[in-house]
Specification:
The complex is a heterodimer of chains A (about 625) and B (about 130).
Chain A: H1 4-20, E1 26-34, E2 37-39, E3 42-46, E4 50-57, E5 62-66, E6 71-75, E7 81-86, E8 91-96, E9 109-115, H2 118-139, E10 149-150, E11 154-155, E12 160-161, H3 162-165, H4 169-174, H5 180-199, H6 209-230, H7 233-237, H8 242-249, H9 275-285, H10 288-291, H11 295-315, H12 320-324, H13 329-336, E13 341-345, H14 348-353, H15 358-361, E14 362-363, E15 366-367, H16 389-393, E16 399-403, H17 426-446, H18 451-457, H19 462-495, H20 502-510, H21 513-532, H22 535-541, H23 566-592, H24 596-621
Parallel strand pairs in A: 1-4, 3-9
Antiparallel strand pairs in A: 1-2, 4-7, 5-6, 5-8, 8-9, 10-11, 12-16, 13-16, 14-15
Chain B: H1 3-34, E1 37-41, E2 53-56, E3 62-68, E4 74-78, E5 83-88, E6 93-98, E7 104-109, E8 122-127
Parallel strand pairs in B: 1-3, 2-8
Antiparallel strand pairs in B: 3-6, 4-5, 7-8
Classes of the chains: A alpha+beta (about 625), B alpha/beta (about 130).
Chain lengths: ~625, ~130
């Protein structure tokens, strides 16, 4: 017989073990799957619960893969699927269809909530803390002139002339094969994309080379690497303006006519800004639910872009298409101001003494700036397409390719007053604002659980689609701009300076949304590439769905990649965006208000705005 | 025009028109060697099997390339000759090969529940 104390020990040990899973119980859910949603689409359990799921399909073969837990099941009509697990990880986990079931299959998603969502609470606390810290640093008394350093460490006027540092790079930049050879390689890739979009089947979106390369790989590379690091790197090698350039110049490689063989009309002054691109990108996103899933729609979209590039090239001068028409040019231009690289003149004195300005008018070595910039005094990246012509046309080798800290151009004010499009303005502000709005709708439609919203964006009913259109219009052009306007109004009110135009406050602080936009789009892109990147292995081996197996990966199954780290990475990237926004924001405040005191007071409402916005973003991603 | 100009033009033509013709010619050659006939699998509301009937000769080996160009899985079964593919995933291809040893009309069908009209997804093999 055991002694009383040892019994007590056993009992209390059992009691303590039970406490760990206090309230843990068994939870049963019956989830009905049909194209392209689950009912219920969100389920809620507590940490430690034993979760049992019965999956019932109401139309075709559907699956259920649970992110983070890496478990899955599938169901056919008449054959249920079962899943059982202990909810030992907390937070929000997406569950997604794992059997290709139709056009929108990659976006068939539901959420599992395991309380308590510590990730979200911790990240929200971090956002608030970061905001307060930034405010504290801004408000602390300090003598002398304000220092313009990134995070108080890296001086923001620092830049490294790469071509001077590494002289062997210059011949590459001056060669006429650069960037033409990149263009030709891209032409080859896009020829395959277009061919695959036609012959590779009409419906198999996630198994189509065109759809996957353009909307999964290209988009993600663009948002996570190309734009934030190098700026308009894509524009450098984009194959679409090739034919227009060729016709305009009469030459493909060598230097032909400086004056276009086309009509060479001047793009109207009124529209020499980002406004046409703001509107065109917004309009093209209205059809996103078609061309991101349907190969033929992708073909049509690319076809329209290629045709437009040629037509605009024939009517208007130089790269008017890239500057004012290409739908993806706008955000690349705006966000390029954040990038680490830039083409700039080295010594302003050399440029001043060079009266011919061959970088603008061209010479026998190259064309006058096709992007209609004035390379000799360019100070922002918005309209620099990295075509490298100015390296060829400068007789003094005065152009250089600079490495610099992130976001240098965001602080650049306009230099001239007579140029129309090289400045901070409402066009760029609205580009930044609409990018946030478009992200919100994309995220809720393609990574959210709402079946109703998916029906709306895919135009299941005309009324639903119209509602989506109105919703998108209001979000992008009214609600979000209004939120910033309110913050700007409070900023001016608190600063006590009534002289500063509200428009200036609004526009200047809108540049906070450049790193924020890059961050949320980056986080969004991760949510696409991690679960769906494995499709790329299949389509690389069998690009036309003809049964090829070029690299032996044609039968590689759909394999979600590292989904357990997805929420953490998304939080991280959102917080990085906030850090940049907070750091640059106070600098914008100092540029907006004449005195440091006003800037400090005017900065506070913007911090509140940024904190609220980021808690909201966290709610979307992990909350 | 100098040599580089010509080289650039040749490269551009190769990368665009050349690529398309190269792909199509290669595929034609490959198919002729590997398959007797191509069969496209689509749900009835999207066009059904294409073609719906395939005519072959008795005693001649047949290799059918079944291409699922849709977004749902399909299956293939030709019960008379005991050939079947359990599942052809979306965007994938499979092949069936057999030698018909009797004449007549024989049905083939889809074996995966692919749509509400799945039972209509059938075709006929004619052996002469």
């Amino acid at each position: 017989m055991k002694s009383f104390p040892s019994r007590l020990l056993i009992v209390s040990a059992l009691w303590l073990a039970g406490l760990g899973f206090a309230g843990a119980e068994e939870k049963f859910f019956e989830i009905k799957a049909r194209k392209f949603s689950y009912t219920p689409s969100t389920i809620q359990v507590n940490e430690g619960d034993l979760v049992r799921i019965r999956l019932i399909s109401e139309d075709v073969h559907h699956g259920l893969y649970l992110d983070g837990y890496d478990i899955q099941t599938s169901a056919l009509p008449g054959r249920e699927g079962h899943l059982q697990f202990v909810a030992e990880k907390t937070g929000r986990f997406s569950f997604r269809c794992s059997v290709t079931c139709g056009a929108l299959h990659p976006y068939m998603i539901g959420y599992l909530y395991v309380a308590h969502n510590r990730n979200f609470y911790a990240a929200s606390a971090a956002v608030i803390l970061m905001g307060l810290l930034s405010l504290g640093f801004a408000l602390r008394p300090r003598p002398g002139a304000p220092e313009f350093k990134l995070f108080g460490l890296i001086p923001l006027n620092w830049r490294l002339p790469l071509l001077t540092k590494f002289p062997w790079l210059r011949p590459i930049f001056k060669s006429r094969w650069m960037p033409l050879i990149g263009l030709i390689i891209n032409l080859f890739i896009f020829t395959i994309i277009l061919t695959a979009a036609v012959v590779g089947g009409i419906g198999a979106g996630n198994y189509n080379f065109g759809v996957m390369i353009v909307w999964i790989l290209w988009w993600v590379l663009l948002m996570l690497f190309m734009v934030p690091i190098v700026g308009r790197l894509w524009c450098m090698v984009c194959p679409f303006p090739l034919i227009g350039d060729w016709i305009q110049r009469g030459r493909l490689f060598s230097v032909g006519r400086q004056k276009s063989w086309g009509l060479a009309r001047r793009w109207p002054n009124k529209w020499r800004n980002l406004w046409p691109l703001v509107v065109l990108f917004w309009v093209s996103t209205l059809f996103s639910a078609f061309f991101t899933v349907k190969p033929l729609a992708t073909f049509l979209l690319l076809g329209i872009v290629i045709l437009l590039a040629i037509i605009i090239g024939l009517i208007f001068e130089k790269r008017s298409f890239c500057l004012f028409v290409c739908p993806v040019s706008g955000f690349q231009g705006l966000y390029a101001n954040f990038s680490m690289f830039a083409v700039r003149a080295r010594d302003p004195e050399v440029c001043r003494n060079h009266k011919q300005k061959t970088c603008f008018i061209g010479n026998e070595k190259g064309y006058g700036c096709p992007w209609m910039e004035m390379p000799f005094e360019m100070n922002r990246n918005t309209y620099c397409g990295l075509c490298l012509e100015c390296f060829k046309t400068c007789p003094y080798d005065n152009m250089d390719f600079y490495l610099r800290p992130f976001g240098q151009d965001l602080l650049a004010e306009r230099r001239r007053t007579d140029d129309v499009y090289r400045r901070r303005g409402t066009d760029e502000a609205f580009k930044a604002l609409t990018m946030i709005g478009i992200f919100l709708l994309f995220f809720t439609a393609f990574q959210g659980p709402s079946a109703a919203l998916k029906d709306m964006v895919t135009a299941k009913t005309a009324g639903g689609y119209l509602l989506y259109l109105v919703e998108s219009l209001l979000t992008d052009f009214a609600i979000i701009p209004l939120a910033l306007l309110v913050a700007a109004w409070f900023s001016r009110w608190l600063s006590g300076n009534k002289e500063v135009p509200l428009k200036k406050v609004f526009v200047n602080f809108s540049y906070c949304l450049v790193p924020v936009g890059l961050a949320v789009w980056g986080a969004f892109s991760m949510g696409i590439i991690f679960p769906n990147g494995s499709y790329i292995l299949h389509i690389l081996s069998d690009p036309f769905a003809w049964g090829w197996n070029l690299f032996g990966t044609a039968n590689f199954p759909w394999t979600p990649f590292l989904t357990r780290f997805l929420p953490g990475l998304q939080i991280l990237i959102v917080l990085i965006g906030l850090a940049f926004a907070l750091d640059f924001g106070f600098k914008f405040a100092q540029q907006t208000y004449p005195t440091l005191d006003q800037a400090k007071r005017g900065w506070a409402p913007i911090v509140v705005f940024l904190i609220l916005a980021h808690v909201f973003f966290l709610k979307l991603f992990v909350g | 025009m100098n040599k580089s100009e010509w080289l650039a033009i040749v490269l551009v033509v190769l990368a665009s028109v050349g690529t398309v013709f190269g792909i199509l010619a290669f595929e034609k050659h490959r198919r002729a060697k590997l398959y007797t006939v191509e069969l496209v699998a689509r749900a009835p509301e999207n066009g059904n099997w294409y073609p719906r009937t395939i005519t072959v000769l008795q005693g001649q080996p047949v290799r059918i390339l079944v291409r699922n160009i849709e977004t749902v899985s399909h299956g293939f079964a030709l019960p008379e000759f005991n050939v079947a593919i359990r599942e052809i995933k979306a965007g994938h291809v499979e092949t069936v090969s057999f030698t018909p040893d009797k004449r007549g009309h024989f049905p083939w069908l889809c074996t995966v529940w692919c749509s509400d009209r799945h039972p209509e997804m059938t075709g006929t093999l004619i052996v002469q």
